[in-house]
Structure formats: C-alpha cells, structure tokens
Amino acid sequence: MTKNLLTLQRDETTLCEVYRRLAGLEKDPVRRRTLLRIMQDERRHCEVLRSRTGRTVTPDPKRVLWYVGMVRVLGRAFVVRQMEQCEKGTAASYSRYPEREEFVRIASEERRHGEELTTLAGGMRLCYISSVVLGLNDALVEFTGALAGFTLALNEPRLVALTGGITGIAAALSMAASEYLATKSEKGREKHPLRAAVCTGVTYLVTVAILILPYLLFSSALAALGVMLLAALTVIALFNYYYAVVRCESFRRRFFEMALLSFGIAGISFLIGYILKLFTGADV
Fold first, then answer.
1. Could you tell me which residue, 46 or 84, shows the higher pLDDT?
2. What is the pTM of this model?
3. What's the mean pLDDT in 22-35?
4. What is the pLDDT of residue 199?
5. Mean pLDDT across the stretch 198-222?
6. Rg of the chain over CA atoms, in angstroms?
C-alpha cells in the first residue's frame, strides 16, 4: 500500500508543479485563477499523502517539461485535455481506498477538477484550427492523389518531386489566398484574415514537403510512392489524434474517414495516370 501511496504522491506533486507552470503561462485571469485553485488543492493532497507515507517526494521533471513543452508546441487546449484525463485517473486511484475518509474526499475533488478542466478546455478558442484543417485536408486528399498520378505517369522520382513541388507551392498559395478572402468576407469573424491564410498556406506547404521527401530519397518511384503513402497515413493519424483530444471527438471515425478519402483518391489518380499514359503513349 505504501508503494501505491508514494506513486500517488509523486503524481500529485508533479501535477501541482504542472498547474503552477500552466497558470504562469495563462493570460486569461479567470482561467489562471482556476488553475491556481486546482494547484492549491493538489498541494493539499500532497500534504495528506505525506502524512501517510512520512516521505517528501519531488515532482517528476520529465513529465513537467513534457507538459510545459506541449503547451508551446500543441497549445493549451491539448494539454488541458491531457490533464483532464490525469485527474480522472487519479480520482480512480483514490477510489480504491473507500475506507479512508480523506481519500474519498480527495477522489471527489479530483473528479471536480476533471469537470473544471473540461469547462476550461471548452472555453479555449481554437479559431485557427479550421484553417489548419483546411490546409491539411486539402494537401493530403488532393496532393496525395496528384503524386500517385505523377508517379505512374512519369516514373522518375526526381521528376515527380519537381512536378509535385511546383504543383504544391502553387496550390498552397492558392489555398492561402482563398482562405484570406473567405475569412475577410465573414461577418463577426474571430479570425484575422492574414493569420488564417498563413495557417492554411504553411500547413499545406509543410504537408507537401513531407509527401515529396520520399521522392528525393529513393531511386525507385514505386518505393517512394509506398513511403509517401505511409507518411501521409502517419500525418493523418497524428493530426486526428490531436483534433480528437482537443475536440473530444472519436479518433477512429475521423482517422478512417480521412484515410479512406486520401487513399481512395490516390488510387483513382494512380489509375488515371496509368490510363493517360497508355492513351498518350508517353514514355518518360
């Protein structure tokens, strides 16, 4: 039992430090107060556990750095959702000791923390995520198909990379311009048109670079195609995991939907490239 309590104590101490760091990064005063209040509760939980174990435990520095780093990379909403899951897990751990009144009370507080974090994450605006989704979806669905078609039609990796690069850059600029005009025409918009355009364009370009890279590394066009499709699948999985976490949606449904669209269009484009190659008699 002491070992389990020490693990709980380490978790509570770590979460306390994470909340302190998150509160320091939070600009909104209401959200900052919520995080500080949860931090104070966690500190009190640590004291209760210390009275039981008789030991002082320090935070896990790797977990603290991980969460703080994720705030800077993936945003506060993602990390708050992760913390929400931690609180639910901690509440379940305390619930294993129903005979101890203080642990029952702490479990109740941990569940309340989870509810507060749910509200907190729901109130965080993710206004530019739609622009990122637009750039990513369009690049994955459209550009994956284009590269598949180029692969069979041209059958030369460097030529596919060159053609794809030109096509991708032009498409990224076009998508960015479209997003700028669309956002600017919205009434009561939350997004800044230029920032929205940059989000869409940069996301498209980064995706294009990832998908083109295999054609610069492999001498076989078909091998490059296989790696490109694997890279596309990885990007789809990572993004949809992030989206599912911050939006509390089903990862599996979104992942399979997007993967089916991307790979379906890639297959159709590959077939079209083959038909056009036969029809034109071109041999590159």
1. 46
2. 0.67
3. 84
4. 84
5. 90
6. 25
